[in-house]
Q: What sequence folds into this?
C-alpha cells in the first residue's frame, strides 16, 4: 500500500477543508457578522431581501451544513468509535506523568480492582497486570447527534425556501375573500381555490383600557361541492384549512362599514337571540331550528328572518320615525389621558359642564352617537352637526334620581322648526323623522313586518377588518424532529460524565498504579474510583492466606 | 452559638419577621385607612389592592412611595380629597435635566405645568425639535394627567365588564343601589379626609372597603388574592434581597481574600436567604398575575437574577466553585439595584397582551433567561481571569501575585467552560422553544426578526467559544475575551434589540 491510499480524507489537501474545525469556525464567524449586518436593515422584509434570503447567505448556511456533516463523520471515525477500545498503560513512570494519578501498596490481583470498578458501573477490560475501565464513553456520540440534528435543521431551512408558502388575507366582517397576498417583493393576489368568510370578529379589552385582551375571527370555508364548515382563529390558536394554517395576525376598525346587532324574539325561539350582522350577511340565529337572520346589502339595510334558508318575514331595522336615546351623562365633562388613550370623564359631580351623549337610532341613514353640551362656550367648541343632522341640549334636570333632558333636533331638510325630545337618562324617545326619511322609507320595497318574530336593532358599531396569515410548510415537522435530536445530543454531550481509568498492579513491588482521564480536568481521582480502590485494597488476602495460597 | 452554626435559616426568619412587621411609626391616617389596603381597585386593566394602586400612582408621579411624611395610601387618599391642593402641590417629578432648568425645579405642580406661558414655551420646544422634546414633555404631561385624574382613576365600583370611579356614578343611568352606596361611602371618606378627622375616616374607610367587597361578591366579580398583593408590596422582596446579596458578596470576598473557605459558607447562607426572598416575590407575582412572572423587562430581569443566584450557589455547593457564589452575589446585588432604578424598568404587574397568552411563554422565556444567568456568571469568571492574567497575578509569581487569592488561571478557564456548558444547552432549548412558539403563533418557526437573529448570533458566538477550545491557543485569555463578547451579545439581544431594533418582539 502506498501512503496516498492510507491517508484519510480529512488529511487530503483539497477535501480536508470540509472536515476542518478551523474552516467551521471561520464559517460560524462569517455567519455571525453577516447576521449582525442583516439586523441593521429594517423592516424585516428588507433585511431578508438584502441579507438573509440572498444566495451568498444561503451558500454560507449550506457550507456550514457540509462542514458539520464532514466533521461529524471525522468525529465518529476518530473519537466515538475508538472510544470503546481499551488502551492499557504499563510502567510506573507513565502513570506518574498522567494527571490525576494514585499509587498505593496493593497485595491483591488486577481482578480484585476490576470487580470493585464493575460493581460501580464501570466497563472493565484487563490484560495481564493492566486494566482499563470506562464509564459514559458514549457521551462522545452526543456531539455527533447534536451536530447531525443541526445539519437537518439547516437543510430543512434551505429546502423550505422552495416548498414553504406564506401570505395574508384581509377580510371585513361579514364578507368573503378567496385571494391572498403572498409575502414577497411584488405581492400579487393568489387564488386559494376556496373562499374564506369572516363570519364574526370578536375582541375584548382589558377594563378601562383599549388594550385588547383577546381577539378572534370566526371563519367559514366556502368550497364548491363541499359543505360549509369553519372554526375560530385566535392569536396562538391556528386553524388548519385545506393544507393551510390560518393565524390571527391583526385587525382594525373599518370606519366606512358598520356592524348591526339585531335581537330576534318570538316565533319558535324560546328566548331572544342577539345576532351581529353586516349588510349582505346571513347568520344562524338558532341553527338547531334552522332559523337564520339576514341583513340586506342596500344603502339602508333591512332584516329578513329565514327558515331553512327561505324568507319567512322581513322588515325595516326600526320604525320610520326619528328616535334618539340618552346614553351617558357627565355632569362635569372632561377629557383625560389614560395611558395612551383619551377617556371621557367628569372632574366632579357638580354640573359645571353638563354633557349628554345621545344615539340617533332611526330616522337616519345609519345610526350614530353624538356628545351634546349645555354650556354655550362648549357648544361653540364642539361641532354639533353630524351627517346633516343638528342637535342641541337645551335643559338638564339633575334634581331627581335619574337626570332628565330636553334635546332639540333638526333633521335634514326639516326646516327651522325643531323636533323636541324630553327624555331621561337611558331612555329612548321617538318623533316624526321629517319628510326626507319618510320619503326614503317609502321608496323601499315593502317587506311584511307582521309575523311571529320581533326583530329589533340593539346597537351598531364600526365593523372590524381581520387580517389572517396563511402558511404552508410541510417541512416544519422535520425541523421540530431535528431540533429534538439536537437537544438530545446536547444532553448526552454535556449531561453525561465521561471517565477513563487505567490501572496496573506491580505484583513484585506490591504497588497499584491508577491514572484517570476525565472530560473536565480534575486534581484527584473521582470518588467512585477512590472507593473502588479502597474496597479492592481492603479485600486483599491476609499475609497468612497469601502464604497458604503460595504453598 | 446557634447563630454561628446555623446562620442561614435564622437570618432568613429574622429578616422576614422584621420586613413583614408593620412600621411602628405609622400615623393615625395610615391606621385609619388600613381597610383600604386590601380593597380592590381596577387600575389600567388589572385589579390591584388599594395599597398597590396608591404606591404605583404615587411613585409614577413623584418617583417615591411616600409624600410629605405620609405613606403612599394616606398620601394618595389625601390628594384625592383635596382637589385644589392637589393642583398646587409640587408633586410632579421631572427627570429630564433640561426641563428641570426650564421650570427651575425638579418638582412642579399641575398649576405650574398648565400655566399658559410655560405651556406655550413647551409647545414651542416641541415645534422646534420634536425628536428631542416630545418624549420628555409627554412624560410630564402624563404625570400631570395622573395627578388631575387621580380620583377618576380610582375605579372601585365593580360592575359587569367594567369598573367605575365613584365620581362617575351620579352620571350613570344604570347605577343601582349598590353603586350609589359605594359612591356615598366614598364621599363620607372624602369628607373625613377634608375635615382631617381620622376617627371618622377609619369608620368610613372600613365601610367603603366593606361595600366594595360586598359589591364584588354580589356581582360575582373574580378578584385576585388582594391580601397577597398587599403583602408583596409591603415586603418588597426583591429590594430586600439586594441587601442580602450585597452582604453575601462582602463575605464571599472576605473569605476568598483571606483564604478561609469555610467563611464562604456564611456568604452562601445569605445568598440562599436572598434567593428565598426572591422566590417569595416571584411566587407571589406568579399567583397574582396567574402566569409566569417573565412578561416584561423587570420581571425577566428579577427572574434572571434568581436563576443566576441558583446557578452560582449550585456551583459553590456542588463543585466547590466559590467564585461562582461571589459572582452570583455581586452581580445579583448590582442587577437588582439596576432593576429598581433604571427608567426602562416597570415593576407593576400588567395585563398580558394576546400574543403572550401562551404556555410557551413559560417554557421559552424561562429557559432562555436561565441561559442568560449562566452567561452572566461566565462573564464574571472571565473578568476574573483577565484581571488575574493582565493584572500581574500569574500563578508562577510568589504567592500567586496581587490576585493570588483568585483561583489559578487554568482553574478559572475550566470554571468558565463548565458554566458555559450549562448555559449553551439552555440557550439552544430556549431558541428551539421560541421557534416552536413562533410556528404556533405566526406560522413560521424562523423569520429573521431582530430578536430571533440576535439570539442566533449569541448562540453562534458561544458555539465559537466552545469549539475554539479544541483549537490550540484558543483557551485561556482568548477564551475569556470571546466569553465577554458572548455576554455583550446576550445584553444586546436581551435589552438592546428591544430598545433599538423594531420587530415582532418589541414588547419584550
A:
Amino acid at each position: 500500500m502506498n501512503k496516498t491510499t492510507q491517508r484519510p480524507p480529512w488529511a487530503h489537501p483539497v477535501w480536508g477543508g470540509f472536515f476542518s474545525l478551523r474552516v467551521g469556525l471561520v464559517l460560524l464567524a462569517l455567519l455571525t457578522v453577516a447576521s449582525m449586518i442583516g439586523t441593521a436593515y429594517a423592516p424585516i422584509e428588507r433585511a431578508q431581501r438584502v441579507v438573509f434570503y440572498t444566495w451568498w447567505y444561503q451558500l454560507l448556511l449550506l457550507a456550514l451544513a457540509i462542514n458539520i456533516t464532514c466533521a461529524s463523520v471525522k468525529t465518529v471515525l476518530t473519537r466515538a468509535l475508538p472510544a470503546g477500545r481499551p488502551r492499557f498503560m504499563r510502567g510506573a513512570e507513565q502513570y506518574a506523568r498522567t494527571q490525576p494519578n494514585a499509587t498505593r501498596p496493593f497485595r491483591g490481583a488486577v481482578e480484585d480492582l476490576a470487580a470493585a470498578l464493575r460493581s460501580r458501573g464501570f466497563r472493565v477490560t484487563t490484560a495481564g497486570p493492566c486494566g482499563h475501565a470506562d464509564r459514559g464513553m458514549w457521551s462522545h456520540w452526543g456531539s455527533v447527534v447534536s451536530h447531525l440534528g443541526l445539519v437537518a435543521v439547516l437543510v430543512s431551512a434551505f429546502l423550505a425556501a422552495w416548498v414553504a408558502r406564506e401570505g395574508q388575507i384581509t377580510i371585513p366582517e361579514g364578507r368573503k375573500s378567496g385571494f391572498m397576498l403572498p409575502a414577497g417583493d411584488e405581492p400579487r393576489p393568489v387564488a386559494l381555490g376556496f373562499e374564506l368568510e369572516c363570519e364574526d370578529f370578536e375582541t375584548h379589552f382589558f377594563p378601562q383600557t383599549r388594550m385588547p385582551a383577546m381577539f378572534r375571527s370566526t371563519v367559514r370555508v366556502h368550497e364548491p361541492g363541499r359543505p360549509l364548515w369553519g372554526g375560530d382563529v385566535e392569536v396562538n390558536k391556528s386553524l388548519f384549512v385545506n393544507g393551510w394554517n390560518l393565524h390571527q395576525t391583526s385587525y382594525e376598525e373599518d370606519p366606512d362599514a358598520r356592524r348591526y346587532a339585531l335581537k330576534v324574539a318570538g316565533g319558535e325561539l324560546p328566548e331572544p337571540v342577539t345576532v351581529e350582522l353586516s349588510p349582505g350577511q346571513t347568520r344562524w340565529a338558532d341553527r338547531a331550528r334552522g332559523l337564520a337572520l339576514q341583513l340586506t346589502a342596500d344603502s339602508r339595510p333591512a332584516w329578513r328572518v329565514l327558515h331553512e334558508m327561505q324568507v319567512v318575514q322581513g322588515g325595516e331595522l326600526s320604525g320610520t320615525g326619528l328616535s334618539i336615546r340618552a346614553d351617558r351623562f357627565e355632569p362635569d365633562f372632561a377629557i383625560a389621558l389614560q395611558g395612551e388613550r383619551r377617556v371621557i370623564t367628569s372632574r366632579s359631580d357638580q354640573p359645571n359642564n353638563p354633557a349628554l351623549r345621545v344615539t340617533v337610532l332611526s330616522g337616519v341613514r345609519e345610526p350614530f352617537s353624538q356628545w351634546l353640551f349645555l354650556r354655550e362656550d362648549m357648544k361653540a367648541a364642539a361641532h354639533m352637526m353630524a351627517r346633516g343632522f343638528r342637535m342641541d341640549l337645551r335643559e338638564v334636570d339633575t334634581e331627581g334620581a335619574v337626570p332628565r333632558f330636553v334635546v332639540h333636533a333638526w333633521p335634514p331638510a326639516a326646516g327651522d322648526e325643531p323636533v323636541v325630545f324630553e327624555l331621561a337618562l337611558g331612555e329612548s324617545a321617538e318623533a316624526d323623522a321629517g319628510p326626507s326619511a319618510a320619503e326614503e322609507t317609502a321608496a323601499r320595497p315593502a317587506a311584511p313586518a307582521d309575523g311571529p318574530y320581533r326583530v329589533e336593532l340593539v346597537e351598531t358599531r364600526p365593523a372590524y377588518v381581520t387580517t389572517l396569515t396563511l402558511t404552508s410548510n410541510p417541512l416544519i415537522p422535520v425541523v421540530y424532529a431535528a431540533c429534538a435530536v439536537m437537544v438530545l445530543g446536547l444532553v448526552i454531550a454535556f449531561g453525561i460524565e465521561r471517565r477513563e481509568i487505567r490501572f496496573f498492579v506491580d505484583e513484585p513491588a506490591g504497588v497499584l498504579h491508577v491514572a484517570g482521564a476525565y472530560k473536565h480536568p480534575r486534581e484527584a481521582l473521582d470518588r467512585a474510583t477512590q472507593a473502588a480502590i479502597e474496597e479492592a485494597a481492603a479485600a486483599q488476602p491476609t499475609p497468612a492466606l497469601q502464604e497458604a495460597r503460595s504453598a | 452559638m446557634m447563630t454561628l452554626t446555623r446562620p442561614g435559616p435564622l437570618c432568613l426568619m429574622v429578616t422576614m419577621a422584621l420586613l413583614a412587621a408593620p412600621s411602628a411609626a405609622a400615623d393615625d391616617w395610615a391606621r385609619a385607612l388600613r381597610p383600604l389596603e386590601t380593597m380592590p381597585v381596577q387600575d389600567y386593566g388589572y385589579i390591584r389592592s388599594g395599597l398597590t394602586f396608591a404606591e404605583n400612582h404615587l411613585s409614577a408621579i413623584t418617583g417615591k412611595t411616600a409624600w410629605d411624611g405620609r405613606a403612599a395610601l394616606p398620601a394618595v387618599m389625601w390628594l384625592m380629597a383635596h382637589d385644589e391642593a392637589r393642583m398646587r402641590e409640587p408633586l410632579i417629578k421631572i427627570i429630564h435635566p433640561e426641563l428641570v432648568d426650564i421650570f427651575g425645579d425638579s418638582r412642579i405642580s399641575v398649576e405650574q405645568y398648565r400655566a399658559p406661558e410655560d405651556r406655550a414655551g413647551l409647545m414651542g420646544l416641541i415645534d422646534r425639535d420634536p425628536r428631542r422634546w416630545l418624549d420628555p414633555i409627554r412624560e410630564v404631561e402624563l404625570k400631570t394627567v395622573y395627578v388631575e385624574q387621580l380620583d377618576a382613576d380610582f375605579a372601585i365600583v365593580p360592575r359587569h365588564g367594567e369598573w367605575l370611579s365613584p365620581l362617575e356614578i351620579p352620571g350613570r343611568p344604570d347605577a343601582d343601589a349598590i353603586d350609589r352606596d359605594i359612591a356615598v361611602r366614598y364621599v363620607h371618606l372624602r369628607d373625613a379626609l377634608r375635615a382631617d378627622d381620622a376617627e371618622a375616616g377609619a369608620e368610613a374607610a372600613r365601610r367603603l372597603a366593606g361595600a366594595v367587597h360586598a359589591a364584588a361578591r354580589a356581582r360575582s366579580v373574580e378578584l385576585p388574592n388582594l391580601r397577597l398583593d398587599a403583602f408583596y408590596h409591603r415586603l418588597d422582596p426583591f429590594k430586600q434581597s439586594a441587601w442580602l446579596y450585597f452582604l453575601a458578596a462582602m463575605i464571599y470576598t472576605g473569605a476568598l481574600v483571606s483564604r478561609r473557605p469555610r467563611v464562604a459558607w456564611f456568604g452562601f447562607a445569605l445568598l440562599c436567604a436572598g434567593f428565598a426572598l426572591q422566590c417569595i416575590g416571584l411566587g407571589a407575582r406568579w399567583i397574582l398575575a396567574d402566569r409566569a412572572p417573565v412578561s416584561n423587562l423587570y420581571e425577566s430581569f428579577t427572574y434572571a437574577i434568581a436563576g443566576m443566584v441558583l446557578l452560582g450557589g449550585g456551583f459553590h455547593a456542588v463543585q466547590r466553585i466559590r467564585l461562582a457564589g461571589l459572582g452570583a452575589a455581586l452581580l445579583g446585588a448590582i442587577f437588582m439595584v439596576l432593576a429598581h432604578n433604571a427608567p426602562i424598568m416597570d415593576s407593576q404587574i400588567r395585563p398580558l397582551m394576546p400574543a403572550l397568552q401562551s404556555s410557551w411563554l413559560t417554557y421559552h422565556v424561562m429557559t432562555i433567561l436561565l441561559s442568560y444567568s449562566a452567561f452572566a456568571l461566565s462573564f464574571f469568571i472571565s473578568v476574573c481571569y483577565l484581571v488575574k492574567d493582565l493584572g500581574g497575578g500569574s500563578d508562577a509569581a510568589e504567592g500567586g501575585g496581587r490576585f493570588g487569592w483568585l483561583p489559578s488561571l487554568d482553574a478559572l478557564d475550566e470554571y468558565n467552560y463548565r458554566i458555559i456548558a450549562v448555559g449553551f444547552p439552555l440557550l439552544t432549548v430556549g431558541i428551539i422553544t421560541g421557534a416552536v412558539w413562533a410556528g404556533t403563533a405566526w406560522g413560521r418557526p424562523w423569520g429573521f426578526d431582530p430578536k430571533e437573529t440576535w439570539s442566533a448570533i449569541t448562540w453562534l458566538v458561544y458555539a465559537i467559544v466552545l469549539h475554539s477550545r479544541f483549537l490550540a491557543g484558543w483557551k485561556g485569555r482568548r477564551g475569556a475575551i470571546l466569553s465577554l463578547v458572548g455576554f455583550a451579545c446576550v445584553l444586546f439581544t436581551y435589552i438592546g434589540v428591544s430598545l433599538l431594533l423594531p420587530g415582532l418582539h418589541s414588547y419584550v
Strands of chain B lie at 40-43, 46-49, 66-67, 70-71, 92-93, 107-108, 157-159, 162-164. The CA atoms of residues 117 and 123 of chain B lie 10 Å apart. Residues 1-10, 18-26 of chain B have pLDDT under 50 and may be disordered.
